[in-house]
Amino acid sequence: MPDHKAEKETMNFLEEMIDKEIHSGKIKNESLLTRFPPEPNGYLHLGHASSICLNFGIAKRFGGKTNLRFDDTNPVTEDTEYVDSIKADIRWLGFEWANEFYASDYFETLYEFAIKLIHAGLAYVDDSTAEEIASMKGTPTESGKNSPFRNRSVEENIQLFESMRKGEFKEGEKTLRAKIDMAAPNMHLRDPLMYRIKHAHHHRTGDKWCIYPMYDFAHGQSDSIENITHSICTLEFEVHKPLYNWFIEKLNIYPSRQFEFARRNISYTVMSKRKLLQLVNEKIVDGWDDPRMPTISGVRRRGYTPESIRNFAEVAGISRRENVTDFNLLESCLREHLNKIAVRTMAVINPLKVVLLNYEEHKTEILKAENNPEATEKTYRDIAFSREIFIEQDDFMEHASEGFFRLSIGGMVRLKHAYIIKCENVVKNSDGTIKEIHCTYFPESKSGQDKSGIKVKSVIHWVNAANAVTAEVRLYDKLFTVEAPDAQNEDFKKFINPASLQIFSNAKIEPNMLNYEKDERFQFLRLGYFVEDKYSTSQKRIYNRAVTLKDDWVKEQKKQHK
Ligand code: ATP
Ligand code: MG
């Protein structure tokens, strides 16, 4: 198993830079302030988790703080449901913010900033339609054209902007634009929009506003209002940086600085709220927290731990260049943590009844099984053993084919923690299917005190029939069949894996499992790591497989390519 122990001693490139700034006296540890600025228009995903770990991690490392700021400047797509889920997810990941702010709290200040720029002759109200503005924008190689409204007087601009605020115009009728340079090589400096009219209800400000600031006129200003020292965002905002700086300089406000890193992409999934929302709305998945979703709430329901996600963020690291992180790295970080903490147990997902002909009827013996060989303090559980047990259908083959070393007629296997058994014959239903199998056991072969001298090639798991609990077990596979579902020039939903969920509703589990808290992680011997699903009840237990024990999938791929 690869060792993914995150080396906290090493620093990523942003941490190295900040370390230098601190050493040179450019900034003080206690004034270091980062922020995590989600737009409350969806649930957080694993890309956001990386950004959260980065922002909170930097503050923690250097003794600074992190704000949570909801970037709620678009009333149409935002909702309080998302605000609540975002807060729950960040806390679950193990982080606590210094302040909870909303860009909408700054609407009045931002409005004053806009007035200030109009007074300085640096902003104007434009009557051009969206199409006209687009057509005058030019191209990267050709400069744009000035709007016919660009040279309105300050007085006229102030009066029109006030009327915009009062709701005197329809949507799209007017915008406020910064007056920069229509020939600027950076297209973002060609008189960018600052405000647009939206007669929409905002989840916090209600109907107070009908003009809303654009991202570029809200984000940097919000950073500045909060005295954010390092505003860390993903690479696509690099081209916005000159504009970010331009507004701060012209407004002469606190000089927050922007830094970029590459988005986290993970193979075999999509990581965009817009696309995830489509999966939810079109009922391709069972909500934002479907265990196959790459959302934080999805992986939580699937059985991921906050530790494994934080470790993944650390091990995968951050980069200055676009890249895709291998899905297997995520799973292997999870395995590494679950191996340490999961309670070992036996469960049979596809039961086949075994009758031990030479085992006394009505006798039950209690066997000891270790709960977790990785734990520093050893604990054991009792498991019952008697004449009738369940094994996996897959562990039995009437007539063994070449290379099949588990149970078959005349063959022997060891039952984990118990005895060696030998299959004597098969009992069939009238339709030819197998009803149960009849075996004998070797009393002197008991685990831990085996004097039988019998050698077997396999050890299989089992569950005692008399006190087994019936449960539903859900096995998940990747949600998409291709490595980069959204890199193709086709609808990403075409690549949905139709076999991403398999349900076994007649699984048998040890009754011991009922004694644990709902979020306990289990290792079902040979089957993988599991957690109880949120809809699991005492009447109907449901378990989700978080991850398999080994990376079968890589092995499978290699086999296919041979
Ligand atoms: P999406 O495209 O999924 O909607 P977004 O960037 O629009 O993502 P925001 O809510 O605006 O989502 O993002 C909040 C913060 O999380 C931003 O600072 C953003 O840069 C960061 N972030 C979003 N997606 C990723 C990602 N895949 N990797 C790293 N950081 C991300
Ligand atoms: Mg966004």
Please explain how this structure is put together:
By secondary structure, the chain is α/β, with parallel strands linked by helices. Among the domains are: 13-105 and 219-269 and 309-333, 3-Layer(aba) Sandwich (Rossmann fold); 107-214, Glutamyl-tRNA Synthetase, domain 3 (Alpha-Beta Complex), CATH 3.90.800; 352-461, Beta Barrel (Ribosomal Protein L25, Chain P), CATH 2.40.240.10. It has helices at residues 13-23, 46-62, 80-93, 107-119, 130-135, 154-166, 219-225, 241-251, 273-281, 296-302, 306-316, 327-341, 552-561; strands at residues 33-36, 65-70, 99-102, 123-126, 175-178, 193-197, 211-213, 230-234, 257-261, 343-345, 347-348, 351-356, 365-370, 380-385, 388-392, 412-415, 420-428, 434-441, 459-460, 463-464, 469-476, 501-509, 522-524, 528-532, 541-547. It has a 7-stranded mixed sheet, with helices on one face. Helix 2 (46-62) crosses helix 11 (306-316) and helix 7 packs across helix 8 (241-251). The site of adenosine-5'-triphosphate (ATP) has 16 residues, from helix 2, strand 8 and helix 9. Adenosine-5'-triphosphate binds next to helix 2, strand 8 and helix 9.
